[in-house]
Specification:
The chain is mostly beta strands and about 375 residues long. The protein has two domains: about 210 residues, Jelly Rolls, CATH 2.60.120.200; about 130 residues, Sandwich (Jelly Rolls), CATH 2.60.120. The chain is built from one helix and 25 strands. Strands 1, 3, 4, 6, 11, 12, 13 and 15 form an eight-stranded antiparallel β-sheet that branches. Strand 7 and strand 8 form a beta hairpin. The protein starts with a strand and ends with a strand. The mean pLDDT is about 90.
Length: about 375
């Protein structure tokens, strides 16, 4: 598999995960465009001053229950009051499929350093646990940091290594399992509210999230410091056989952020194809790790149908695995094709010029 999950919040809403959203009172979460690390959007959590712990979080369930994972998070925090005494702020928790939290990485805002805990309780490991590692890299508020987290879950021979912006900060060997299930089934991202009203409010920002396992030939180790960018439809492509709900151009009906249901393209014809050219990459980008065709879709009536993500490169169409759409309109769902690490029909990494020349679209099964 290699890359298991990529999330840059570039669709303008919290829809890229496959797990749950936890959105409790007195702490707010939203995808916003004011403070971002790369692309157009990032996720913001605001912890409001209070006397109890509340949570905002989302989860990603991992296929295959890998024993080893690499997690990357672009992270920034901003303290809203002069009293910066918040003791413990979880950032990411690795759990098994039964809900047992193996490891939680947290920011200690009074010291501006990371701590690593085993066996925390709560949805994002916000309470108790055993401290197994303390970081030395000092975080700066209102500055983006890249956290990379490698974990091998095991009672004996477990490993947890944390890098901050490429520098090793925590390196723990020993017991990293909090149950007999020595794997990562779910990853939780989020933050909790402050534990006492006197500690005040704070904002936490997430961007450029990635999860790798150790399989495959690509993206099977540290994700690195890269970002996530979305290229939107910019013009009609080679084939436009789906029906427009309005207007004269297919692409103009599928380029909104966030998605809406007031204009769209649709088809019920087998092998019907709709393709679009894309906006160009930022000129500063010179390395492409992979591309991932993505679309949102729904059915006009209850049932199911197959749709292929389609990528057109150098005059040839390449189909991804079939995706089953099983929801009725207007419940649009985000679908991602498999990451494409090397040039289609060729070899080697993608170049910016090749990516800028691609067309993407969908084909009815």
């Amino acid at each position: 598999m290699a890359r298991l999950f990529t999330c840059g919040f570039e669709f303008g809403e919290l829809i890229e995960h496959n797990g749950v959203i936890i959105d409790e009172s007195l702490i707010t979460q939203a995808v916003q465009s004011t403070v971002v690390r790369s692309g157009t959007y990032a996720w913001k959590i605001s912890a409001i001053a209070q006397g109890a712990v509340y949570v905002a979080a989302f989860s990603q369930v991992l296929a295959g229950n890998p024993q080893e994972v690499y997690v990357r998070i672009g992270f920034q925090y901003s303290l809203g009051v002069s009293d910066a005494s918040t003791i413990f702020q979880p950032i990411v928790t690795l759990s098994d499929a039964a809900g047992n939290n193996h490891l939680t990485l947290a920011l200690i805002t009074s010291t501006a350093r990371l701590n690593l805990y085993r066996g925390n309780t709560g949805s994002i490991g916000q309470t108790s646990g055993t401290l197994v590692g303390t970081g030395t890299v000092a975080f700066t508020s209102d500055v983006w940091h890249v956290i990379e987290f490698y974990a091998k879950i095991a009672d004996s021979g477990g490993v947890a290594t944390i890098k901050v912006s490429g520098i090793t900060d925590i390196d723990f060997s020993g017991d990293t399992a909090n149950s007999a299930n020595e794997y990562v089934g779910t990853v939780f991202f989020g933050a909790c509210g402050v534990s006492a009203a006197a500690e005040g409010a704070a904002d936490y920002y997430y961007d450029d999230i990635a999860i790798n396992d150790t399989t495959g030939a690509s993206e099977n180790t540290w994700p690195g410091l890269s970002g996530v960018y979305l290229l939107l439809p910019a013009a009609d492509g080679n084939a436009t056989t789906w029906t427009r709900s309005t207007g004269a151009s297919n692409w103009a009906l599928v380029d909104e952020l966030p998605n809406n249901t007031t204009d769209y393209v649709s088809s019920s014809v087998a092998d019907a194809i709709d393709q679009y050219t894309l906006t160009s990459l930022c000129p500063a980008i010179n390395t492409i790790n992979f591309i991932e065709p993505t679309f949102q879709a729904a059915l006009g009536a209850a049932g199911s149908a197959g749709v292929f993500p389609l990528v057109r490169h150098s005059g040839s169409d390449f189909e991804s695995a079939s995706v089953i759409v099983a929801q009725a309109t207007p419940n649009y769902i985000l679908f991602k094709g498999e990451p494409i690490y090397t040039v289609l029909g060729g070899a080697g990494a993608w170049t910016p010029a090749q990516v800028n020349a691609l067309e993407v679209g969908m084909k009815i099964k």
